[in-house]
Specification:
This protein is mostly helical and 665 residues long. The protein is built from 39 helices and no strands. α7 packs antiparallel against α8.
Length: 665
């Protein structure tokens, strides 16, 4: 080598490296703020070359969210990122402590937890530190319950409270106030109610009874009261729990509602009690309404219930005109229109459906009203008006069952059971939360779903109220795997969201409702059975809300809610314990059952889905020519209300998964 040329070669090398560095940083300047849509290659570039330490930390956190569960790799990504006073440093310390503990280095993990508590004592991440260190220091667990009462770490600590009976009772009371649906809370409530060594006070019994009733166990709630009269809120909760029971329990629930309404006629509790009482079918509930105080007689629920059974249409139209924005009016309009439709009274149905309440309907109900209005117009020969009504529906409310039926009537699409023609299940598409909370949005942008959820719970422990909060919390819950409550909240939002928000928040809501979970398991099971994965997702969404651990009161288990006997028959023998809670195995057996139903009904999706819920034997007795001539009316005439709703929900899910329609502005 010519040593005389060495300085020149070094200069060229340094110049080349400097040029690459300058070029790399120029490229970085064009990369926007990182989020879950940023490619990993871009994040690696930011991590290596950015002059901004904040951007480097954000890139590391996004890579951390993608790297899986390897604690050693987690520690490498987190190394040196816990600097400064920014709450992200608290997140880094928490994740580093968890990874260190997973590697078996308990002393180092405790050191990180103590550092987190010293530097960031008020951040949600500190709750995890109090929980971890509180295993050996009970005082820290008490501090956790006081400082972060609704944080998941506090709820876990409340569930584990003990070993003394008073501590277990106090843990149950904490869950009753802040974590009603925390896994295992129900058993904790029953244990506290039955305790002989630390019996609850009358006030505590009332709190525990209310919690049990809110979980749907009205009988256990009554037993917990031990003969003492319930408080007003507990009485309402007990009534709700009893209304879903047998005939005698329903009668007792109605009596509790009547007592509550009569004892506190001017309270919000009385308004809710009257609404529930008015929703009950049968002559007994109608008679109970006559015993309400005068202040509650002239209210929308009571008048709507009476109008439902009145002859003619004048009483119905009077209620719709007087209370156009009340849910009781919306239900009255539908029930009387449905009666007219099933009787073939097209002009009567049109009169009810044309009542001036459409602009007050929430987005979840407008599709039903517009489809049947168009149907009534069509049956009377008003073909152009019907097409215009259905076109309007497809433009603004194209998702769900009624979007499918309108599209089919207009020749604009149909469901497909051909796996080759059906699209693959779409992965979740990241979108900002739109919460207005800067820290929450940043955690969401950095794909730190669990920390975002913990931040939300710590800041807003009360249940969500309006549709905006329901959508936001529903999305957060789904992001951390709580699909049961999360999807339920999203569906609630669709029944509260005004139509004038259908274009903004409604588009986010539609996208969230059309996102499946356990996509890989569903697609594999569908491929093996020769079915579209969208069909399995449509059934799973209605059956379990994508919750593999859920078990129905009838004993059905898992993602597609299979009865153990049916599953064993499909599998060709007994299944090991827990097999049906495995989403892959459950999907495989559910797909096999649906494949059998497809063969039995020659690919008719209505009969397949109805049979999945009610059984093929029952469905065979319902088949008649109307199924081919007017399938919408055939579905409305299904004698089992549960199956009727089930068919519309599942087929609407299938349409939404296959088309992914969104409302237009």
């Amino acid at each position: 080598m010519n040593l005389a040329r060495l300085p020149l070669l070094l200069a060229i090398t340094c110049l080349g490296s400097g040029t690459l560095l300058v070029g790399g940083r120029a490229l970085l300047a064009r990369i926007p703020a990182a989020d879950p849509t940023t490619p990993s290659s871009s994040l690696a570039l930011v991590r290596a070359l950015s002059l901004d330490p904040q951007r480097r930390r954000e890139a590391n956190l996004l890579l951390l969210a993608r790297q899986g569960t390897d604690p050693a790799r987690s520690r490498r990504l987190l190394r040196g990122q816990g600097w400064g006073r920014d709450p992200l440093a608290a997140l880094v310390l928490k994740r580093d402590a968890l990874a260190t503990a997973a590697l078996g280095d308990a002393p180092a993990a405790q050191k990180l937890w103590r550092q987190l508590l010293r530097r960031f004592p008020q951040t949600p991440a500190a709750a995890d530190g109090l929980y971890a260190l509180g295993r050996d220091q009970p005082g820290l667990r008490k501090l956790l319950l006081q400082r972060f009462p609704a944080h998941p770490a506090a709820l876990a600590a409340a569930l584990e409270a003990g070993p003394s009976a008073p501590s277990r009772r106090d843990g149950a009371l904490h869950l009753a106030r802040h974590g009603l649906r925390w896994p295992g809370a129900g058993a904790k409530f029953r244990q506290a109610c039955q305790s002989k060594t630390a019996p609850p006070t009358p006030l505590q019994r009332d709190q525990l009874a209310q919690a049990l009733a809110q979980l749907g166990d009205g009988e256990a709630g009554q037993a917990c009261l031990n003969g003492q009269p319930p408080g007003p809120e507990t009485k309402l909760a007990l009534a709700k729990g009893l209304l879903s029971g047998n005939a005698s329990q329903q009668a007792l629930g109605q009596n509790l509602l009547l007592e509550l309404a009569r004892s506190r006629p001017h309270s919000p509790l009385a308004v809710e009690a009257v609404s529930l009482l008015s929703d009950q079918p049968g002559a007994s509930s109608l008679e109970a309404l006559t015993r309400l105080p005068a202040a509650l007689q002239n209210t929308a629920p009571v008048q709507a219930r009476r109008a439902l059974d009145s002859p003619g249409s004048s009483a119905v139209l009077a209620v719709l005109q007087r209370w156009p924005n009340h849910p009781a009016s919306w239900e009255l309009q539908w029930q009387r229109a449905r009666q007219a439709l099933l009787a073939g009274q097209w002009s009567g149905a049109q009169a009810f459906l044309s009542a001036p309440i459409e602009r007050h309907l929430p987005v979840g109900l407008v599709g039903r009203q517009r489809f049947w209005l168009g149907f009534s117009q069509w049956q009377q020969g008003q073909r152009n008006q019907a097409r215009a009504t259905w076109s309007n529906l497809l433009e603004h409310h194209p998702q769900g069952y009624y979007g499918w039926r309108a599209a089919l009537r207009l020749g604009r699409g149909d469901l497909s059971l051909d796996p080759a023609a059906s699209p693959a299940l779409s992965p979740a598409v990241w979108q900002p939360l739109g919460s207005g909370d800067r820290q929450l949005e940043r955690l969401w942008r950095l794909d730190q779903s669990l920390e975002a959820w913990e931040h939300w719970r710590s800041q807003r422990p009360a249940p969500p109220r309006g549709p905006e909060e329901l959508v936001l919390e529903g999305r957060l819950r789904r992001a951390v795997g709580d699909h049961w409550i999360g999807l339920g909240q999203l569906e609630q939002a669709s029944l509260r969201l005004p139509t004038n928000q259908a274009c903004g928040l409604g588009r986010v809501l539609a996208s969230s409702l059309q996102t499946a979970s356990f996509v890989a398991e569903l697609e594999q099971a569908a491929a093996e059975a020769g079915l579209p994965a969208t069909l399995l997702a449509a059934v799973a969404k209605q059956e379990s809300r994508f919750s593999p651990g859920v078990r129905s009161s009838a004993g059905a288990v898992g993602l597609l809610q299979l009865m153990p006997e049916t599953a064993a028959e499909l599998a060709g023998g007994p299944l090991p314990p827990g097999a049906l809670s495995d989403p892959g195995r459950n999907a495989q057996l559910g797909a096999l059952y649906l494949s059998n139903l497809r063969r039995q009904w020659q690919g008719n999706p209505v009969l397949m889905v109805a049979s999945y819920n009610a059984g093929p034997g029952a469905v065979a007795g319902w088949v008649n020519p109307q199924l081919q001539l007017q399938p919408e009316l055939w579905i409305e005439a299904i004698p089992y209300p549960e199956t009727r709703l089930y068919v519309k929900k599942v087929l609407g899910n299938l349409w939404s998964f296959q088309q992914r329609p969104t409302p237009r502005c």
